[in-house]
Amino acid sequence: MICPRCGKRTDKLISGMCINCYIDKIEVRVKNDKVMFCPRCERIKVGKSWKGLDALAELIESRLRSSIEEPVVKVESISFHKDKMYVRFLIEGKVDSQRVRVEREIMFRIVRQVCPDCSAPDRFDVKMQFRGNYEDAFDYALSIARGNVKVERKKEGMDLLVRDKKAAKGILKELKKRFSFDIKESYKLIGEDVHSGKKRYKTTYSLRFY
């Protein structure tokens, strides 16, 4: 038999085409192109749980609409652009009892939502220790801090607890524009995320102002 689409000889035609041409025309889509994404821990919502980006294959499989039977998804690459996430993936499965491998890319629209773990009122992943001649710098840090922060007065100075590292780096960036200080960075293991299995660390920035 000859495939009328590509002209190659084949032992079997599927819908009037060889297997390779049929694979090229297979439609792959998802029933919902929105994905809930936590901007603090960078997890996504899969069903009722929040999981790491490595769960994208599971998410795609649960939403997949295709003629491929028994599909198994393997994510190959992920890229972000503004509020869109592009996922290139490989689907392995069956078409008319033949094993096939299909590569596709799907665009998800990102809906940013802080997950329950990150929105917990007592979760602060970063500690900023203000020491030395810190008074003006500390007041300025409080004025530019976004979101909830917590202040702790210590005998050596002041500590500013910040929810996530991204927010803390923003404060540091602004402080460097106005003040001179030395900085030391350290980490402490504080547990493991119950959803993604990733280890959680508390970051401490020790800032000594001149």
Shape: elongated
Number of beta strands: 13
Strand residue percentage: 35-45%
Secondary-structure element series: HEEEEHEEEEEHEEHEE
- Strands of the biggest beta sheet: in what spatial order? 10-11-9-13-12
| Whole-number total of structural domains | 2
Number of helices: 4
Structural class: alpha+beta
**Which sheet architecture does the biggest sheet show?**
5 strands, mixed
Helix share bin: 10-25%
Nearest-angstrom radius of gyration?
Answer: 25 Å
| N/C terminus separation | 83 Å
Q: What do the pLDDT scores average to?
A: 85
Low-confidence stretches: none
Key features of this structure:
2 domains, 210 residues, four-stranded mixed sheet, five-stranded mixed sheet, 4 helices, elongated, alpha+beta
Explain how this protein is built.
It is a single chain. The chain has 2 domains: 19-112; 126-209, no CATH class. The model has no long low-confidence stretch (mean pLDDT 85). α3 (135-144) packs across α4 (165-178). It is built from 4 helices and 13 strands. The strands form 4 sheets. It has a 5-stranded mixed β-sheet. Strands 2-8-7-6 form a 4-stranded mixed β-sheet, sandwiched between helices. A hairpin with a 6-residue loop joins β12 and β13 (199-209). The protein has 210 residues and is an alpha+beta fold.
